[in-house]
Specification:
It is built from 5 helices and 5 strands, in the order βααβαβαββα. With 144 residues, it is of the alpha/beta class. The protein has a 5-stranded parallel beta sheet, sandwiched between helices. The longest helix is centred in the first third of the chain and has 14 residues. The two termini are 17 Å apart. The mean pLDDT is 97. The chain binds 1,3,4-trihydroxy-5-OXO-cyclohexanecarboxylic acid (DQA). The site of 1,3,4-trihydroxy-5-OXO-cyclohexanecarboxylic acid has 10 residues, from loops.
């Protein structure tokens, strides 16, 4: 049986995981996250592809690709969560599950992080569980 594809899409500054505010985002690097999620996905029968970009247009292109091909998405929109109607509009076009993930607990931080433009269009939201949030999202996708 062919494995189900899932895209894990990470937004701006997440390429700096491991170096970036480790007290908030942990010590796992983005390269380590990629390797871990691929192997975690294999255990769930999923073919996981992890991408990261600091360019909004590139992220919108990936969301269109997922919509056109009905590929489930695990999305950490990072700062675009709180600022981008364009990302929200792209997410609204989804044709498969899309789970919004935040490594940190955005509700326990600055006020501006409490609002997400993406949440109204997401299947579900996970925040504050660190890297385990991505595992939980992949598990949810595998079960649906
Ligand atoms: C984040 C939370 C956002 O507020 C922030 O801008 C990020 C990362 C998280 O994973 O906790 O870049 O999405």
């Amino acid at each position: 049986m062919t494995e189900r594809r899932v895209l894990v899409l990470n937004g701006p500054n997440l390429g700096r995981l491991g170096k970036r505010q480790p007290e908030t985002y942990g010590s796992t690097t983005h390269a380590e996250l990629v390797a871990h999620l691929i192997s975690y996905g294999q255990g769930l029968g999923l073919s996981v592809e992890v991408r990261q970009t600091d360019a909004e247009a590139e992220m919108i292109g990936w969301l269109h690709e997922a919509a056109d091909e009905s590929i489930p998405v695990v999305l950490n929109p990072a700062a675009w969560t709180h600022s981008s109607v364009a990302i929200a509009d792209a997410v609204a076009q989804r044709t498969a599950d899309l789970i919004e993930v935040h490594i940190s607990n955005v509700h326990a931080r600055e006020e501006f992080r409490r609002h997400s433009y993406v949440t109204p269009y997401a299947t579900g939201v996970i925040a504050g569980l660190g890297i385990a949030g991505y595992e939980a999202a992949l598990t949810a996708v595998a079960r649906r």
